[in-house]
Amino acid sequence: MPAASSPRLRFVPLGGLGEIGANCFALEQDDGILVVDCGTSFPQNDIGIDVVHPDFRWLEQNRHRISGLVLTHAHEDHIGAVPYFLRAIEAPIWGPAHALELVKHRLAEHDIREHEVDLRPAPSGTRYAVGPFTVEPVRVAHSIVEASALCIDTCAGTVVHTGDFNLDPEPPDGEPTDVERLKAIGERGVRLLFSDSTNIDVPERPGSERAVGETLHRLIAEAPKCVVVAMFASNVQRLLMVGKIAQATGRKICLLGRSLGVHVDVARRIGRLDWPSNLVIGAEHLENQRRDKVLVLAGGTQGEGVSAMRRLASQTHQQLRLEAGDTVIHSARVIPGNERVVHDMFCDLLRQGVRLHTRHSDPGVHTSGHAGRSEQAQMIEWLRPRAFVPVHGTLHHLRRHAELARSLGVPETLVVENGTPVAVDADGIRRDAAVVHGKVNIAYGGEVLEPETAKRRADLGRYGVVVVSLVLSSNRRVVLASKVEARGVPTLDEQPGACRSVEREIRSSLEHLGGASLELVETEVRRAARRAILESTGLRPVLFVHVLSEQ
Ligand SMILES: [Zn+2]
Ligand SMILES: [Zn+2]
Predict the structure, then answer these.
(1) How many CB atoms lie within 10 A of CB 428?
(2) Model's pTM, two decimal places?
(3) Which candidate, 226, 234, 221, places its Cα nearest to that of 253?
């Protein structure tokens, strides 16, 4: 039978392949498209970009065929872009209750009314149809509650997506990865597996969440005064343990940071965080509380500009000043790229006489939520797929994960990055023609920052800006008024004297131009201004020239 007649499935990666973050892919067959996850990533530079999300143009072009969006878990790199997705596409959204609860929160922030969106809670162990696909979420352990793998029946056979997972046998929420179900799915036959590649370089995931809990318990019990634990707000597993530690050590929890407040609130609302109501005190009560009776949880593990941790480090926090003898535990990893900022924050804390515990001094204060290499191998062995495509990683991670799958005897493996679809039919899997893909930058304020505007903004930061304004007489022979103003330009910035000397140069360049057209005058002003600024600063800042003529 010719290959063209066998049903064809396409995997279309739009985010998360070739990068860490912004996870989003689609499964496409003739009669429908299923989208899996819809996440954001962090900006790579500091030009006022709030978040980055995948370019959804391919989905928009195919919007009439989209059957739905399925979310694996509530991390931002999987749900953060849902409001932006909904700007372009109308589709029902399935996911764990926890993820949907956080989506509701995001929708409210974007002024999208809840009843306008079709949210359908789908706990692990249920099966439901999304257009022509049947989806079964399977419970996996991760650094958040209610994380799931997805077992999806397609025209080409069963496709499994691990989601973000680890094989911790005793996660604090008591719900380990559903090994028996995964094995049963493997027995039935898996056509294609997508698996989390994040920690391919880590042979064994060091420690477990419970071991982190034991380390935190010891450090908190020993602490003589106030304790601050800096942690990722979404790590509900760790929140569960911290709550127990606070009760065991007789401390009250105080949350510093908006995101922590949201995550604690949502987890309690859906019954995933059993903190007694008197365990938490508001930040306004901190000053009335004995220092050895408080356990502060603070956001800003990466030293983010306006975060609680950054403010504590710079002693600018409104409600809490750290003192010598206080304890700070950095219970997180440092995301690559943030090392210098975080290191500076640590040094600021040390200057205050704080007892600082980090992964360097106490490796047990944090562990990753992602499977190490041995767990990734175990997953492949349980599912024994015919084909394997690694996801959730840079090209380096994906390549190494594919090598692991080959070494375990998976017959077909393929590494692709965002924008390169994989076609699956009876003959095998292969690369397909590229689809439109990329990244969209969202500026603070919520609007798209187009590449040209982003470049201009970066230029302003890099070179500064000079504005030259001139008013000429009606015959354009006399300069009636002139002003040069600079921002961010050395020797000119807020220096009226230096700016006036540039003004003089411009005026003198106009002396021989009497009666010339306004355009010619403007060109000459621009030329003279550039030359004078370059002479006095050695720079070519962004330049605006406004020449007005008297009527
Ligand atoms: Zn995750
Ligand atoms: Zn993730």
Answers:
(1) 13
(2) 0.93
(3) 226
Ligand nearest to the CA of residue 75, numbered in listed order:
1
Which ligand approaches the C-alpha of residue 38 most closely? 2
Ligand 2 geometric centre to CA of 118 (Å): 24
Closest ligand (CA of 392): 2
Indicate where the chain has its CATH 3.40.50.10710 domain(s). 209-365
* Cα 23 to middle of ligand 2, angstroms: 7
- Find, among 114, 111, 130, the residue nearest to 122 by Cα: 130
Q: Which ligand is nearest to the CA of 99?
A: 1
Pick the CATH number of 7-204+368-449 from 3.60.15.10, 1.10.287.130, 1.10.8.10, 3.40.50.300: 3.60.15.10
Distance 80 CA to ligand 2 centre (A): 11
How many Cβ atoms from other residues are within 10 Å of residue 398's Cβ? 22
Residue range 498-521, pLDDT digits in tens: 999 999 999 888 888 777 788 888
- Both tokens of 134, joined, read 């049947």
Taking domain 209-365, whether its CATH number is 3.40.50.10710 is answered by yes
Give ranges for CATH 3.10.20.580 in the chain: 464-549
pLDDT at residue number 1: 42
pLDDT at 333 over 80: yes
Lowest average pLDDT, out of 163-167, 432-436, 457-461, 477-481, goes to 477-481
DSSP secondary structure letters along 351-376: HTT-EEE-TTT-GGG---SS-BHHHH
String of DSSP letters for 122-136: --TT--EEETTEEEE
Q: What's the CATH code, domain 464-549?
A: 3.10.20.580
Cα(42) to centroid of ligand 2, in Å? 13
